[in-house]
Amino acid sequence: MEFFCDLEVDVNSEETFMVDKNFVSKFLLVFSVTINLSTFPFLVKILASYSGRLCKLFGKSKGTTTSLKVVFHDFPGGAECFELMLRFCYNFGRTEITPSNITLLRCAAEFMEMKSSVSGAGNLFEQTEKSFEEMRYWTWSELLMALKQCQGLLPASDSSGILERCLDSLVGRLALASEASPCPSTSSPDSSGFRFSCDTKSTESLKTVFSRTSWWFEDLLFLSPVMVEMLVKSMVSRKFDHAIISRFLVYFQKSKSCTASSSEKCRNVETVIDMLYILDQSCVSCKSLFEIHRVALNLKLSKSSRNKLENMIGSQLDQATLDNLLVPSPYGMNHLYDVNLVLRFLKVFLREGFCHLSAMRLNKVASLMDLYIAEVAPDPYLKPLIFLALVTALPESARDSYDEIYGAVDMYLEVHSGLSEEEKMKICCALNHEKLSAESCIQLSQNPKFPSSSAVQALISQQFKLKSLLHATNNTKSCADSSSRATEAGNESKKDKSEEQVVLFAGSLDLQADSKNLRAHLQGMQWRVMELEKVCRKMQIQMAKIMKSRAPSQSHSRSLPRLCS
Ligand SMILES: *[C@@H]1O[C@H](CO)[C@@H](O)[C@H](O)[C@H]1NC(C)=O
Ligand SMILES: *[C@@H]1O[C@H](CO)[C@@H](O)[C@H](O)[C@H]1NC(C)=O
Ligand SMILES: CC(=O)N[C@H]1CO[C@H](CO)[C@@H](O)[C@@H]1O
């Protein structure tokens, strides 16, 4: 049967293939040119003999039309891939499948249903399958090329499983490389069996390790955010070193940010954040997180990614620096720095619970907050409640000294002179007076910006501190007197002096006095407090000496005063 018709195949509205009779011999594709085709049945037969899909289509229209148009909307890989598939057919299934076209052919084979039930043993699907078995012999660049094609063939490459195979192969090679002889270009003798992981931070070899483990970063910059996500998930499931993954993600984000449009940047940053979030957080550098945070300030990130980023930063707030925290306020807020952000960081940091946080980490954050509070205190727009929230965010045990806070409160009261007495009181209550040094206490007691009750509190606590210190010293002394008189006969006179002063101190304090007279009273007392501080310091030194001299026999010298009393 012979009839004239055109075979027109519209592939994804990209290109229209008009097939002419010369095509059979020349493998020529003519685009958008209509040529009558006398040998159509022959072409139909060839194509249909390989493709189940076309077979079904042509079968339906058999003999009834003179012009046939097939429209594919979602042909994987588009025109290029369709052409490869045609070549395979017109070459009667004899073709070489290489890493450069295997993924395209495989996707085409699946789409066109080119399987054994249609064309027997030589079908395209099985031929690609055989070639995939050779994957482990592919070179690195062949693998990269295949991966690149997979990216272009999404989502077909994902649903067919070839993307997963390529990623698996890639991650397998990287894991092998980072474990055994890492960088292909370096052949240092010490490289065998070397393994870098986040908890072995050998300072000396960090640089070489970095170049050894990061040689592939550049090669994978072509990945789209979706592919990065798949790669990282594959790495994580294969227990790939999280420190390296983390560095790759940061590198990826940085490298992409210079060229990308704002919406691309946003997607890149979101992906990087989401992936960093699934890693072991001890492998994610706080510095990098802040860098990402800075980039993200100008982007409209999703709420979920923003929260994740803040959570990651908050949980390692002890690694942050003052500069990191001085983030400008978001548009529309009138205070200078984004204080609410820092409060959110703190909330995350403390979420672990005080008992699970080491004192060292807590102290570090407290010192950082002292610096931060001092920095934001002069901001005239900073509301008392927010300032108070900053000061009270950490438990009192986090700070050994409240001197810095005293300085910040002083500054805050200076700038915000219009505060009500009640507001002032609230802020001053946040000061732990017992943890103020003598100097700060004295300054506070003379400071007209502070409510007088705060001044009283400062001095009472100072007095209390001295008393207990003197008490302890007295006990130690009496103990020393009775048990080791011989070793310190020469220091006797000094102790007598200090005892005199204790008496003086105890006799002159009457803090219940009327608060009008108080300031004058307190000022007069000031020098005595200073003197007593000096004495105390001397006594402490002496005490330490006594303890030392008795150290061999006393294993727990700290409880010495109590033992003797
Ligand atoms: C696949 O690529 C190889 C090498 O580039 C080529 O020889 C072969 O013909 C290609 N296969 C098809 C079906 O086009
Ligand atoms: C010091 O110790 C003696 C007894 O050793 C005691 O009588 C005296 O009250 C103590 N003084 C103080 C200030 O605790
Ligand atoms: C501060 C002081 O005078 N210390 C002396 C206490 O007594 C011992 C033993 O006599 C001396 O060695 C110290 O110098």
Automatic annotation (TrEMBL):
It comes from the Eukaryota. Pathway: Protein modification; protein ubiquitination. PROSITE patterns: NPH3. Residues 214-465 form the NPH3 domain. Gene3D superfamilies: Potassium Channel Kv1.1, Chain A. Residues 476-498 are annotated as: Disordered. The keyword Membrane applies. The chain crosses the membrane at residues 27-48. InterPro entries: NPH3/RPT2-like, NPH3_dom, SKP1/BTB/POZ_sf. Residues 476-486 have a biased composition (Polar residues). Keywords: Membrane, Transmembrane, Transmembrane helix, Ubl conjugation pathway. The keyword Transmembrane helix applies. Belongs to the NPH3 family. This is NPH3 domain-containing protein. It comes from Ficus carica. The lineage of its organism: Eukaryota, Viridiplantae, Streptophyta, Embryophyta, Tracheophyta.
